[in-house]
Structures are given as structure tokens and as C-alpha cells.
Design brief:
This protein is α/β, with parallel strands linked by helices. The chain has seven helices and eight strands, in the order βββαβααβαβαβαβα.
Length: about 270
């Protein structure tokens, strides 16, 4: 009998003609051998006491202002989500040896500055990916080299030796990357997904996963959208984005429900 991770997934029944039937739940058994844990843009310093003080400089100059692609995320909310929900869920995935795949923003030498995407980032977010996402542990022939610490990963969340790391070029992790090839080689069908931002990189990656016939289970308390200032206290923008994804693109569970599912799986396996 195939081993599975048993989840009670939630979705939203967006049936306008029936008066919006609201939330519903469905039992789902994710084949363990065809499941992976996808960590999207979970980077930044300051989540571990031994992390260096983040400077958020784009070009290595001390004292540079934090770039706009902190985006409207509140560091307080992000810190809470990572420490109380996302990291415990990641730990649970590791404890049952699920494949863990990190998907991170990067600055490849592909002429991004000439793209419409780059123009949007500059015009609407005052952001230059080719500067902000530079790295100092990268092949400078393939990626833009620099000392920005924006995409450095906290010691709390550092990928382990047996885990996978894919650099992406735009919001979606599937556009121009090796992610789909990796998932196919691993024979993955189910993606348990966490990360940021709910209205950009996470959402577009989930949408592209759906088009490629992957089953996506979003850990809905392990993400954060770019809530506008008037929304941040109650995270109204995040709530709206999660409901939209549950309506149109995926199903969801909470981090605690995922953790409990992995415990049940481990007990049954033993």
C-alpha cells in the first residue's frame, strides 16, 4: 500500500450564481513518494541571533537604504510567521525526509534590465533586480556579482546539504528555470508550498504549477502579501490573496495541520 500524507484541505467555493457557498474541506492523501516541500523566497537576515546585522545594501555601500522589494511586508509579521509557522513546518518536512526545494530570487546575466518586467519593477517598486539580488558566492560569468545581502539566507533557514536550491529570474519559479525538470526527475506530483510574497512570487509559482498539472497545497499561515499601510494591522491584503488562491488555484492547510499530518505519517510508517 502506498504511503501517504493525509490532509484535510480547505478551498473556497466561488460560485457567484449560488451566492458564494464559502469554505469547504476535502480529505486528500498525498503520495509520500511523490511529494515535496517548496520554500519560495524565504531569505533575509535577522531571524537567528547569530545572523550578521542586515544592511540591505544593493551595491555594497554601507548605510544604503533598504530597497523597495522589502515590498510592503512588515518585518514584525514576517518574523512571527517564519518563527511560529514556517520554520516549524519546514522542520516537520525534514523530519519525514520530504524533498525540500528552495526557490530564490537572483540576478542572472540575461539582460533583465531590457525586459518589461524590469521596467515594472523600476517604475512601480523603485527596484533594480540586477543590483539588489547580486551575490558574492556566485559564478560572475552567469550571475551579477556583488555584495548585496538582500538574498542572503538566515542561519535559521539555511538549506541543508541534501536539499535543492533553484535560482529564479522573475516572480514565477517556473519561468526560465530548472524547477520543472527537477520536479519531473524526482517524480513529484504534490507540492506543499510556503513563502513570499503571496501576491507575487508565491502566487505566480502556484499558478504555473497548476498549468503543469501539479497538486498544490498551500500552508496558508506561512505566507504574507504586500499589504498596503492601511491593511497591515489585520493583514487584510494577505487574507484576500489567500482566499483568492483557495478560490482559483490551489487548496490549503495550516502549518499546524501539516505538522500533525507528518506526525501521523511517521507513526503509521513506524
Amino acid at each position: 500500500m502506498a504511503q501517504s500524507i493525509k490532509c484535510k484541505t480547505r478551498f473556497y467555493r466561488l460560485f457567484p450564481s449560488s451566492g458564494y457557498l464559502g469554505y469547504a474541506f476535502e480529505d486528500y492523501e498525498a503520495d509520500y513518494n511523490r511529494s515535496a516541500f517548496l520554500v519560495i523566497d524565504v531569505y533575509g537576515l535577522g531571524f537567528h541571533p547569530d545572523d550578521p546585522v542586515p544592511a540591505y545594501n544593493q551595491d555594497g555601500h554601507a548605510g544604503a537604504e533598504r530597497p523597495a522589494l522589502a515590498w510592503l511586508k512588515s518585518s514584525e509579521h514576517e518574523d512571527r510567521i517564519i518563527k511560529t509557522a514556517l520554520f516549524p513546518a519546514l522542520t516537520a518536512a525534514r523530519e519525514i525526509n520530504l524533498p525540500v526545494i528552495y526557490l530564490n530570487n537572483s540576478a542572472p546575466r540575461i539582460g533583465l534590465r531590457h525586459s518589461e518586467f524590469s521596467k515594472v519593477l523600476k517604475r512601480q517598486l523603485n527596484t533594480d533586480m540586477e543590483h539588489m539580488f547580486t551575490e558574492d558566492e556566485i559564478d560572475p560569468k552567469e550571475y551579477h556579482y556583488g555584495k548585496s545581502d538582500h538574498v542572503k539566507i538566515s542561519k535559521l533557514l539555511t538549506p541543508r546539504e541534501n536539499e535543492y536550491f533553484v535560482r529564479k529570474h522573475v516572480y514565477s519559479g517556473f519561468v526560465g528555470t530548472r524547477l520543472d525538470l527537477l520536479l519531473r526527475y524526482l517524480d513529484i506530483k504534490n507540492l506543499f508550498v510556503v513563502g513570499f510574497s503571496a501576491d507575487a512570487c508565491l502566487m505566480t509559482t502556484i499558478i504555473d504549477a497548476l498549468w503543469r498539472n501539479y497538486k498544490v497545497i498551500l500552508l496558508r499561515d506561512c505566507t504574507l502579501a504586500n499589504d498596503f499601510p492601511e491593511e497591515q494591522a489585520e493583514l487584510l491584503g494577505t487574507q484576500r490573496m489567500v482566499k483568492m488562491m483557495e478560490s482559483l488555484y490551489c487548496v490549503s492547510v495550516t502549518s499546524q495541520e501539516f505538522i500533525e499530518s507528518t506526525r501521523v505519517f511517521a507513526a503509521e510508517k513506524a
